[in-house]
Inverse folding.
């Protein structure tokens, strides 16, 4: 599966890693919904590190659609929440 | 999975599709894609032509080297015939160096020839693919245009029916309005007749005035009749002297008239 880290690029991950990544992803969602900014930051970094560690980066000129997308490492809880709101990433 | 990753991915895709749907005419995209393929094919063909040119250049070089080589061989033979073994040795050693170059060039030539064949084949395959794409593209475009036309027809039909609905409503409204106006006119007539409403046009008169008018009109008629009768009665006695031109009679007549007027 191809995962994009916003602002960084894409990595290819074997499906076998997803059970592990999903735990962190669900944790991240819980922290985001609960408004736990320090927890959110910690988990986001852990998740991004894991994705970078387990995945193989795709070249910049690769034209592969990403199946999963992760916020940029410096994204704030409010920014991610706004991205996931009804208006989504691209307004309109 | 319902985490941040999945949700962001879904939003991204949904938004991208929406943006694409809005912006893209599939026919334009197909034409663009075809254009790109043609450009690619052109590049491959240019590559084939470049390789063929290099091959030709190598062939020319090889011919030249082979000529030089045979010249050196001849020179060596002549030198030997003239008893100049040293010269013959020199010529043959130069020839040997040339032969080495020739064999290097021959290897290059073979490689280039192989390359050229592969590229020619690739160009042919690409050409076939591009042709197939063009046919497919035209089919898709035609289908899309037909679908679009069908949608337009559908829209036109629904538009027409809507419009018909509007016309029906307009007729209904006009009928209602007419009925309303008729009712109002009837009511106004009644009100005018009863005297509850004044007629600002001045055409209608109240019944007292009408009666007075009728009476005075009648008086005038009576008076007029009497005057005409008097004229006729008086006229028969005064007409003759008037023709004969009697001054005194005409004065008497004027006295009569004065008297009549006073009456």
């Amino acid at each position: 599966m191809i995962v994009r880290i916003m602002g960084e690029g894409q990595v290819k991950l074997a499906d076998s890693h997803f059970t592990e990544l999903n735990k962190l992803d669900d944790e991240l969602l819980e922290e985001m919904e609960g408004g736990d900014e320090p927890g959110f930051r910690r988990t986001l970094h852990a998740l991004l590190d894991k994705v970078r560690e387990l995945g193989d980066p795709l070249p910049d000129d690769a034209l592969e659609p990403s199946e999963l997308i992760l916020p940029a490492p410096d994204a704030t809880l409010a920014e991610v929440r706004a991205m996931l709101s009804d208006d989504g990433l691209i307004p309109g | 999975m319902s985490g941040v990753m999945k949700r962001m991915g879904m939003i991204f895709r949904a938004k991208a599709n929406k943006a694409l749907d809005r912006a893209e005419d599939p026919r334009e995209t197909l034409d663009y894609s075809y254009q790109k393929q043609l450009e690619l094919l052109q590049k491959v063909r240019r590559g084939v032509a470049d390789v063929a040119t290099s091959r030709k250049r190598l062939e020319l070089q090889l011919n030249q080297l082979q000529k030089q080589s045979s010249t050196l061989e001849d020179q060596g033979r002549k030198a030997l015939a003239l008893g100049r073994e040293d010269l013959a040795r020199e010529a043959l050693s130069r020839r040997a160096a040339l032969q080495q170059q020739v064999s290097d060039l021959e290897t290059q030539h073979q490689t280039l020839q192989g390359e050229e064949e592969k590229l020619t084949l690739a160009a042919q395959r690409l050409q076939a693919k591009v042709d197939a794409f063009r046919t497919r593209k035209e089919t898709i475009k035609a289908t899309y245009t037909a679908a679009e036309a069908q949608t337009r027809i559908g829209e036109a039909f629904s538009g027409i029916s809507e419009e018909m609905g509007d016309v029906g409503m307009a007729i209904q409204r006009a009928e209602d309005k007419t009925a309303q106006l008729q009712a109002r006119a009837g009511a106004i007539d009644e009100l005018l007749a009863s005297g509850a409403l004044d007629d600002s046009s001045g055409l209608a008169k109240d019944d007292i005035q009408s009666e007075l008018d009728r009476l005075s009109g009648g008086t005038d008629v009576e008076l007029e009749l009497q005057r005409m009768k008097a004229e006729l009665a008086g006229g028969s006695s005064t007409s003759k002297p008037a023709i004969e031109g009697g001054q005194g009679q005409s004065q008497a007549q004027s006295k009569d008239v004065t008297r009549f007027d006073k009456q």
User: Anything to note?
Assistant: DSSP finds five helices and no strands in chain B. Residues 237-263 of chain B have pLDDT under 50 and may be disordered. Residues 11-130 of chain B form one domain. Residues 85-194 of chain B form the longest helix (110 residues).
